[in-house]
Design brief:
InterPro entries: GH, GH_1_N_CS, Glyco_hydro_1, Glyco_hydro_1_AS, Glyco_hydro_1_beta-glucosidase. The protein is α/β, with parallel strands linked by helices. The chain has a single domain, classed as Alpha-Beta Barrel (TIM Barrel), CATH 3.20.20. Helix content is 42%, strand content 16%. The radius of gyration is 21 Å and the shape is globular. The site of the ligand N=[N+]=NCCCCNC(=O)[C@@H]1[C@H]2[C@H](O)[C@@H](O)[C@H](O)[C@@H](CO)[C@@H]12 has 14 residues, from helix 8.
Length: 446
Amino acid sequence: MIKFPKDFLWGTATSSYQIEGAVNEDGRTPSIWDTFSKTEGKTYNGHTGDVACDHYHRYKEDVEILKEIGVKAYRFSIAWPRIFPEEGKYNPKGMDFYKRLIDELLKKDIMPTATIYHWDLPQWAYDKGGGWLNRDSVKWYVEYATKLFEELGDVIPLWITHNEPWCSSILSYGIGEHAPGHKNYREALIAAHHILLSHGEAVKAFREMNIKGSKIGITLNLTPAYPASEKEEDKLAAQYADGFANRWFLDPIFKGNYPEDMMELYSKIIGEFDFIKEGDLETISVPIDFLGVNYYTRSIVKYNEDSMLKAENVPGPGKRTEMGWEISPESLYDLLKRLDREYTKLPMYITENGAAFKDEVTEDGRVHDDERIEYIKEHLKAAAKFIGEGGNLKGYFVWSLMDNFEWAHGYSKRFGIVYVDYETQKRILKDSALWYKEVIQKNSIE
Ligand SMILES: N=[N+]=NCCCCNC(=O)[C@@H]1[C@H]2[C@H](O)[C@@H](O)[C@H](O)[C@@H](CO)[C@@H]12
């Protein structure tokens, strides 16, 4: 049996656009994901978040389920378009939803953990110079974050400024798979810079407000990159893949500079880094209280002269999830050790870890998702090994509490430990939820 520390924070995670629905209710205006999902061909079968899990109306039931599972904390995100439906126009009715949700959580003794930005940029911000491409986005974001701190500051012990800046910049403005669907690498790096800058400015605003008892950090999706062979060229490919996925965000936040090797590589592609102004890196690297780590899988790369990153993915030997991502728990251990060694001794939380598998409701009305139990158990073993060696890991949030809108994959991929029947909005605790309940009760895994 593997025991976890006494106060280990067991949780689950969701995000606003993926579960709330009610996209036109109480003053909310469209986000870039409303626009993107309604654009032909952008999401699986044209799925949108219009209804999703109807969490906006069913939040009480969902908090009951959280209580049933016994989580200590619940990570959700706040929809910016509910709070500021137009530039400079605060919408108290939008804020009231989150106050109701938080009240329910506190009544059930569940710690609210809020992500300020989980990709649902207000469309009005995008219409003003491309959203994160416009340096004014920093100002708009700080106004939004400051209002949240004013209204909710002391009832939310853990604040996360951004969820996965890599996705909201590279995947969204560079690769084009996510909203707003641009395919311009220079834009991707400009967006990444302004997102990181907005993170730093929000942390400064948070500090100035001196909010008692609350902590602030950022959540990064980190994908360890391994060379396909011991050949020097494959090792170089892995270095660039690591810079692309990880160091481009870790270095500015923890070292106050962008990684030199990637600056050199990228300058050939995007030209001048004229969007980086004096003092920006100082702001981006203001001290934070914790690091959120989202871990799903690793990458294995071999050298490819023709690719921008000189790297080409090769499939790993492990089993894959429904997303096609290799299952590699040992890489989570490697990642945590590396973060501890090279970046920070701050508290860390695994703010997302989980998997999509083909889930189905069987005759007995249950969902026997043994693969998901196996996935979570193996990753918890890796986390426990890190903690056992003195690693400062304070908590673990399963992605996700419930099946939800999986971005470009729509509702075709199920990550929940709770099954959602989208026809009826019925929730069914999968076997993994029942298993996780026991893990939390015993604070240990077999
Ligand atoms: N091409 N491509 N992409 C490769 C890397 C993509 C990484 N995706 C994530 O980490 C997202 C994170 C997100 O917070 C959540 O909102 C998503 O639902 C989960 C599941 O997808 C994960």
